[in-house]
Here is the input.
Amino acid sequence: MSLKTPEALSASKKDTFAYITIKDRLPVIITKAIDYLSRFRSELIERYSQDIVDDLKNSIELLSQLRYELTTDKKFKKITDSGSDSQLWNTSLEELESQIGSDNCTWFKSPWLFAECYVYRRIREAMLLCTTGLKEYDPYEKSKLQSYELSLNSVFQLITNLCPLDLNEEKQNQSLMHERFRVIVEALLWANKNDLSLSSGNDVSSKIQNLVELLDSFRSNVLCDHTEELWQYLKNLKLQKENRTVCIDIVLDNCSIELAADLILCDFLLRNDFVHKIRLHGKAFSWFISDVTRSDFDILIQQLQSSNSLVINNFLRRLNNYMQEENRLELNCENSFWTLPYSFDQMERVNPDLYSEFKTTSSLILFKGDLNYRKLIGDLDWDISTPLTEAVRGFKPTSLCAIRTLKSDLVANLDRANPNFIEMIKNYPDSNKWMITGDYGLIQFISF
Here is the structure.
């Protein structure tokens, strides 16, 4: 282990993506929420009733105040709504004040992870303080619905390409099963490009049209690839199923096509009997704009039901059986830990029940996307070659896998001698911008 833990990423340094996020991206994201509430006022009144007029006005004022506090680097305020996680958030703020001092608990001086999570909780507060049905409204609903619509054909293509019509073909051909797993994991990775928080709410699904056709061209952009290690580990789990219950967990990231890719992986692992059960973990409310909530899951299922494809209909039928009949696939969107500002090494302290569940019942946790990766390695400024086993620090409840496209300037476990890295760095000889474009990816696995 290194003797010294790196500094937390912060917007205090102007040459970082943290600074760009706080200075430019987050004000735009808040402004979009204000814009949606203003522009669709009539539509919202028709949906909820005339009673919401005062709530609309108050929410817009609260969001405008939030934008002012951010752009003028004011101190963080306590959460004042009655949400079930309000006290947890205020405790986290008190802890931060004791760690870095009250004067440093501002947007540009505090750790980036806290500041960026805090803005989404304050947006949630602006809605929860409503006294009408508007309190449950997602101000980014329009962005997400647009993303669903624009990516629908890509979702259909993904399922049609990666789910077989004949379920016996994989069981009779192990090399085909192995190859299909590899392609599904690659699809999982590159579907992660569709992140509305990175694009400040603008749809980016056009980047991943015909995803399966693009996978070969993306392969050289994978800077760390443990797909084979993950495959061997899952094969070993399959052998252990006769002696014990094998359960794995997937901590979800984005909705729409990325969620579809996640469900394709679940289907693959369950229909081929690699595990007994898979637990999916989503968010309790709108988080980083496009993170999966229960509503997002329901919308995807409704979209798939509109298809006339036999492959997609069979896929849906299997999902329904896993969830409703067999209890082998479970979606949990209620746990507040995923919408708190803590890195995962704090899970055992902050949410001991969740940590204990992972430690005692899970054989693997698969973390999807950039924010989960940031929390996994603490949002700390590690040297890029730091072993992942070191960067996760005390978080070792079970074996871990992280799949992400790089959208923030931190990473661990890279080999500078990797041919893909050598080729990539030629284009960025004096810059870390390769870390934030979303054009490069990681599939990392560690076994404990």
Notes: The chain has a mean pLDDT of 95.
